[in-house]
Amino acid sequence: MSKTDVTVLGLGSMGHALAAAFLANGHRVTVWNRTPGKGDDLVAQGAIRAQGPKEAVQASPVVVACVLDYPTLHGVLDGSWDALAGRTLINLTNGTPAQARETAKLHDGEYVDGGIMAVPPMIGGPSAFVLYSGSRAAFERYEDILGELGATHFLGEDAGMAALIDLALLSGMYGMFGGVAHSVALAASGGLDPAEFTTSLLAPWLVAMTGVLNSITDDSPADMQVIAFGNIVAASNDQGVDPELLSHLTTPFRQMIGPDAAGLTLEEMLNR
Ligand code: FVH
User: Fold this and answer.
1) Residue 75: which CATH number?
2) Any atom of ligand 1 within 6 Å of the Cβ of 167
3) Would the CB of 95 count as within 6 Å of ligand 1?
4) What is the pTM for the complete model shown?
5) 165, burial (CB in 10 Å: exposed 0-12, middle 13-18, buried 19+)
6) CATH code: domain of residue 255
7) CB atoms within 10 A of CB 132
8) Cα 33 to Cα 265: distance, rounded to the nearest angstrom
9) How far apart are CA 83 and CA 6, in angstroms?
10) 205-260: per-residue pLDDT in tens?
């Protein structure tokens, strides 16, 4: 069976990995990037370099876009929307739900928005997954192709859902990274080597805690945890570590533990 032709707009770290995956799976891949040299190795492997976005869009029924942000995407497609009409636009650029919905409206054709939950070397490998929302018909027609990038999760016909859940997952990741930075600073203030601390204690601790994400307050009541927040802030101040990040933990914690805690101050939560 002949493989669907695919165009990739944007050959940054991620766009390059996407185009390479499509090439490896035997597609006729047309590529365009603002800085042409980034596609040289792909062209050497058989990709076709388009001279501009319009030529790239006209080359395939499926256009996958992955550029810096939505204003960049709109700039790239300015002048090519007519050529894109009737083709499927799969936009894997990171942005907000509102930007995804706005882009869906601009496109006269099937639109699928995506959120890539992987770094470029993971594309096409077993741990990559990508969130999609928008045209169900287009997603189902091209699910096999999209599956070449990583596992697929379709989140419904609201084009903004993939961006929303992408940002929700990134919130968890960046919250963890921020916590890691604070954790390492606190340990270093006590004289521990950051790399050794991270490998021998912090990483195993975080891995263990991922096992209780759905029951965070079952065995460790919220009130007890809120007292620990106060201790972290006090000890950070004593050690000369800025407590700014951790001092805000009560707000998301209140949202997580439910409406009966909404609007309560730290003191009110402690005195419930
Ligand atoms: N890399 C990652 O780990 C993450 C994983 C999750 C998804 N993100 C999102 O993917 C989008 C692209 O990210 P990227 O890693 O490919 O980013 P860069 O390597 O910086 O490439 C940026 C591309 O955008 C092009 N570009 C930038 N400005 C313009 C412009 N004014 N006109 C046309 N194209 C532009 C840039 O072109 P060039 O600089 O090579 O000429 C690259 O193709 C992003 O939304 C991530 O959040 C990646």
Assistant:
1) 3.40.50.720
2) no
3) no
4) 0.90
5) middle
6) 1.10.1040.10
7) 25
8) 51
9) 15
10) 999 999 988 887 677 776 677 778 888 989 999 999 999 988 888 777 766 666 55
